[in-house]
């Protein structure tokens, strides 16, 4: 793990990059990283995020500035700007059931080719997908999902990069921290090694590439 | 009584002590208000919490304690938090005893459509498809009709949420179940006759000999 400024970290992300962003309706989202992505105007992003949050909050800021060209998400109904951009074909949107979304990312981070899920069988979600029977039950083959960058927000990070999360801000963060080539983390508090007890570490330090420094 | 409250009160009667329950947004959220205090029900919020409590008092909200709509909530003693893979493992894996969801249409075989209106409303399915596919019991809580049109239809014209039929539909007019895969009128709302419910329902309803009045 390397500690870097938010400017340095975001400078590593090229325009058009694929980026996973943790958070659920803007809760547990690395806001400082997103503010800097907006400031450096990283355009044409492929965004993988549970939702589009709301304008001005979380990944909603990326839609305010029209920085997203492709989106994989589970629900964008609470962000009218993302909806408008989708209906105007400015962004290509792939809507995925939430349990499938997280399992595809988990598969991507765990070296699996994909997962078999019953969710979506017999619905529009099944279109174009392979259906596989196991013990007489139908499942969809949903392929793994990875990104070049994961932007993750933790409650605690220690000097080595061990992470712990708070309440419902955990959501997709630990799963995404497994599934990208480069993992960049912001934390509410940076604390000495040992403050997070081994049993309370959720994301182990070797998964974290960059920790954003305070200030 | 307000139609939404009739629905919420009746659905609350379906919950049992020890149940793990997931409530969708809208009318389903109201169900928590009508669960008797001696019933120990665990409510899950799919963004990663079991043991959701009421909206915190003014000034007591915490930015990392929210429901699936991002609104502040509280957590009851004994609550637990987890990531989204665990949360949907609980849902898809059959560990959730009851889910209560809103609906746009339910058809004569119990199929639910509740996630999109093509060309009009495409918000995304969020967790709905996993909930309907994986929960042990699926209850739909919705108004019987919208703009005078029955939402209990012969066949869903809107895209389905799951191939798995729901177990029970509770509306402001009736309780409908699907024994043998066929819509069956189980109860009528106070003051409504069987004939009135049938007249306001597009789907053909099987009518048992005894159709009691909904007790709320």
TrEMBL record, chain A:
<keyword id="KW-0808">Transferase</keyword>
<dbReference type="Pfam" id="PF01144">
    <property type="entry name" value="CoA_trans"/>
</dbReference>
<dbReference type="InterPro" id="IPR012792">
    <property type="entry name" value="3-oxoacid_CoA-transf_A"/>
</dbReference>
<protein>
    <submittedName>
        <fullName>Acetate CoA/acetoacetate CoA-transferase alpha subunit</fullName>
    </submittedName>
</protein>
<dbReference type="InterPro" id="IPR004165">
    <property type="entry name" value="CoA_trans_fam_I"/>
</dbReference>
<dbReference type="GO" id="GO:0008410">
    <property type="term" value="F:CoA-transferase activity"/>
</dbReference>
<dbReference type="InterPro" id="IPR037171">
    <property type="entry name" value="NagB/RpiA_transferase-like"/>
</dbReference>
């Amino acid at each position: 793990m390397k500690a870097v400024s938010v400017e340095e970290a975001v400078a590593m992300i090229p325009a058009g990059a694929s980026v996973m962003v943790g958070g659920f309706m803007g809760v547990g989202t690395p806001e400082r990283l997103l503010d800097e992505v907006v400031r450096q105007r990283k355009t044409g992003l492929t965004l993988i995020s549970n939702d589009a949050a709301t304008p001005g909050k979380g990944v909603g800021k990326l839609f305010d500035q029209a920085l997203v060209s492709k989106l994989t998400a589970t629900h964008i109904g609470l962000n009218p700007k993302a909806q408008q951009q989708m209906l105007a074909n400015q962004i290509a949107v792939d809507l995925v059931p939430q349990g499938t979304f997280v399992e595809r990312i988990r598969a991507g981070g765990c070296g699996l080719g994909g997962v078999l899920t019953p969710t979506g069988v017999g619905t529009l979600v099944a279109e174009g997908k392979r259906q596989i029977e196991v013990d007489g039950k139908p499942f969809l083959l949903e392929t793994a999902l990875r990104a070049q960058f994961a932007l993750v927000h933790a409650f605690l990070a220690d000097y080595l990069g061990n992470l712990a999360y708070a309440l419902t801000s955990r959501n997709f963060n630990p799963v995404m921290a497994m599934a990208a080539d480069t993992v960049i983390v912001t934390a509410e508090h940076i604390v000495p090694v040992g403050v997070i007890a081994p049993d309370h570490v959720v994301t182990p330090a070797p998964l974290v590439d960059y920790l954003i420094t305070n200030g | 009584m307000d139609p939404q409250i009739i629905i919420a009160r009746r659905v609350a009667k379906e919950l049992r002590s020890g149940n793990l329950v997931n409530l969708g947004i809208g009318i389903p959220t109201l169900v928590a208000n009508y669960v008797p205090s001696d019933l120990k029900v665990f409510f899950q919020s799919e963004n990663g919490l079991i043991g959701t409590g009421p909206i915190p008092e003014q000034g007591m909200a915490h930015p990392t304690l929210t429901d699936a709509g991002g609104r502040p909530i509280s957590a009851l003693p004994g609550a637990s938090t987890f990531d989204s893979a665990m949360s949907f493992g609980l849902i898809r894996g059959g560990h959730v005893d009851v889910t209560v969801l809103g609906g746009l249409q339910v058809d004569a075989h119990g199929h639910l459509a509740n996630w999109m209106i093509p060309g009009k409303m495409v918000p995304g399915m969020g967790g709905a498809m996993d909930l309907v596919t994986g929960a042990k019991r699926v209850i739909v809580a919705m108004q019987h009709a919208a703009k005078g049109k029955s939402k209990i239809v012969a066949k869903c014209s809107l895209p389905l949420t799951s191939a798995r039929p729901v177990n029970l539909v509770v509306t402001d007019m009736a309780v409908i179940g699907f024994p043998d895969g066929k819509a069956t009128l189980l109860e009528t709302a106070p003051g409504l006759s069987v004939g009135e419910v049938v007249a306001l329902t597009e789907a053909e309803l099987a009518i048992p000999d005894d159709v009691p009045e909904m007790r709320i």
